[in-house]
Model the fold of this input.
Amino acid sequence: MPRALADLLTLPIVQAPMAGGVSTPELAAAVCEAGALGFLAGGYRAPDALRADIERLRGLTDRPFGVNLFLPQWQTADPAAVEAYARGLAGESARYGTATGDPYGPVDDAYDAKLALLLADPVPVVSFHFGVPEPEVLDALRRAGTVTLVTATTAEEARAVERAGAAAVIAQGIEAGGHQGTHRDDPARDRAGLGLLALLAQVTESVDLPVVAAGGIMRGAQIAAVLAAGASAAQLGTAFLATPESGAPDPHKRALTDPGFPHTEPTRAFTGRPARALVNRFLREHGADAPAAYPAVHHLTAPLRRVAAGTGDTQGMALWAGQGHRLARALPAGRLVEVLAAELRAATTELADGGGAG
Ligand SMILES: Cc1cc2nc3c(=O)[nH]c(=O)nc-3n(C[C@H](O)[C@H](O)[C@H](O)COP(=O)(O)O)c2cc1C
Done:
């Protein structure tokens, strides 16, 4: 009997998968042990490394967890725009003492191999970012006993997720840290991103699937708000990025609450797809010129970002963060889940008692 998302959630809290080394097995395990749903990030991860992460996580907890995959990106980028952007990064190469990467690196993120791994050795939950998997893929995972989730950033995308046969949809608002999971990167939509509450109402009225709400959620009262607006659970990324179990570099964690980084912006500067990051020098100097060319720009800037991160240079790193970053708490992940759950209970009681009007 295929399971439903609700069967797997003790608390309506999901720790967002965060690629690039942030979502460690230790983070996911601490979250799962505290009663929320922990996630591993399969994006950018080699299949063998993902397999090892899953084994390690299984060794740390018996509770259900999820694995996230990026859909392959076949969207063609304009080679002239990629070349022009590469030329504009010459100063960065000089600054960091390294060449830019080959923009024509892999576009499929070893999706087929990672999918084969998850079908051969199923995990409780698999979520997808950057598109909708084939209905056959979602069906095969369902038959393997896996609950499937797919990110949507509009009601139309949510309907596509439902048509394909996913078990649930993640409604990701424009507040969210990291990449927007839009199914197709369209620069014409750059100013059309929906805030989470506006999106959530449209998605819940468009599909019959359970909805997980993501974007800017840092406190239990905000979880209560999205549950009141029809979500089945809330997915939090930036809140967990600050925990000691997260694999984010310490300068990235500290920057979340550093007054020197007062705000975030969605930018293509680092990867070629819109992703929300703290505004730093690299974003300011290159954001306006960055083409819609994912993963070409990701490959181009990877060596620069590696050196910047290695030297703790926050002005050259991709400091992914959601709009709620100032509210980040550097609590152990399990403790953070407890605090969020207590805040959620308090807010729910307050609402039931009539809130401020009571
Ligand atoms: C550092 C970072 C990395 C992320 N990587 C992924 C990822 O690999 N897969 C994914 O589906 N979402 C990813 N996201 C987006 C989250 O799933 C989620 O939408 C977002 O964190 C919610 O907004 P918040 O950060 O304000 O909580 C990432 C977010 C951050 C902050």
